[in-house]
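tl;dr need the bound structure. longer version: we got a ligand (zinc ion) that a collaborator sent over and nobodys looked at where it sits. i said id run it. heres the input, straight from their email, havent touched it
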Amino acid sequence: MTLESNETVDAVPEQYGFKLICSSKANNLIPVHKYKSVNSGITVVLGEVEGPVVNGYFALATEAHDDDGLPHTLEHLIFLGSEDYPYKGVLDLLANRCMASGTNAWTDTDHTCYTMTTAGSEGFLSLMPIYLDHILYPLLTDAGFTTEVHHITSEGKDGGVVYCEMQGRENTGESRVNLELQRDMYPGLCGYKSETGGIMGNLRDSTTNEKIRAYHKTYYRPENLCLIITGQVGAEEVFKTLKPFEEKIMSKGGRDEFVRPWQSPVPSLTSSVDKEVPYSCDEEDNGMVYIGWRGPSAVTELYKLTACAVLLKYLTDTPVSPLPKEFVDIPDPYCSQVRGILRAPKIPRYDGPTRPKNYTVNFLTVLNMPTKLHQNRTRRSRVRAVKQTIDI
Ligand SMILES: [Zn+2]
């Protein structure tokens, strides 16, 4: 989808304080309009998708330079009540009454996104301001932190919803190998190497409610909030609904200067790394191999990016692709699966002449490879051959 500013659209509802930034058609079919509030700085993107379902994606660019899991812990705490609706669970209770299939959210490395889906626009417009009040004005109480993030139980054990969630995944082989790969692919100071979900050690000893409050203050602000709405809901209705919320934002007075996240260039990858990562498992016969390499920029080199995606698909996607054929579909298989993954960090750098260098990372995952083979020179030379094949 591209957004261009030269297409004509309906009259912009400027009386609501919004300015049309650009319009285009997604897939040459669906009209998409992007607006920005001149008062608060909130961005609104409307996609006129046919059908009765209305989707809302409320996204904020979030960056972390440690493993305290501030983006993830904050995401959880958002649902525990807000200034105008100070009750846990009230959001989902109201969502049910608005014909919504609940509310949800995810934390990615470079953004956090809150979602809602309703049948029809009426329920959507009723729920949206309540949801936004939770996002920009959450309670973030110490009690909420204790129950939701981390605490010690009466039996002396670690507890907390976020803590237990991370406990369930931190020490899996996939997680450990993936994190090590991330660390090595992005040396130096770089947000892409952080575990934004939170490492258990950090959640126990380092993450605090004060840090979460400060994190919220830095990133959860109208200039950094983008509301993406798809479905049959008119622009004017959306702006009319947002008006009281915007007035609330303005009534809070001035804010500190906004420093846009993801502005520092990604440090170069200067040398290759070959590392063994131990992890707990039932048996020691098999392991997994992750091979990663820097790809083109996801912002400025879209053709090369597409070429990489096609190449990875060609190399791994079907049983007759070269890598499964070479590694899996042989009498004495080297592994059970070869997968290709392309990660594309997409937050662009707007200001100044320097173009972004947020390179994609391509990687291959090889599952259930016998560990004996891992030490075997033949295998090493084979992997080297694969690296050379894909090193374009
Ligand atoms: Zn979670």
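gonna send this back to them w/ a short note. The CA atoms of residues 132 and 177 lie 37 Å apart.
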